[in-house]
Amino acid sequence: MAEEVHEDHGHSIAAWTGVGVILVGSALASVAVAIANVALFVVGIVICLVGAVAGKVLSMAGYGAKTVVGPDSPDTTKPELGIH
Known about the structure:
The chain is mostly helical. It has a domain at about 10-65. The protein has helices spanning about 15-35, 40-65, and strands at about 5, 70. Helix 1 packs antiparallel against helix 2.
């Protein structure tokens, strides 16, 4: 019988921060396109890049999603199944 892998699906501080900052940047870039302002568009794109970097940095700092294998086993290696 295969064990279920429970994933957090991005419900973490890192994911929400990254997505929130990227959302603000994309909204700003969208407004810039509508009013034909190249400088504001570039600022919006830079904010999007900052959001992606912030999400990755927070994830590496331990604020990312955790993957848990099975309800009682935090260990992902199962020698009896040949999985390493």
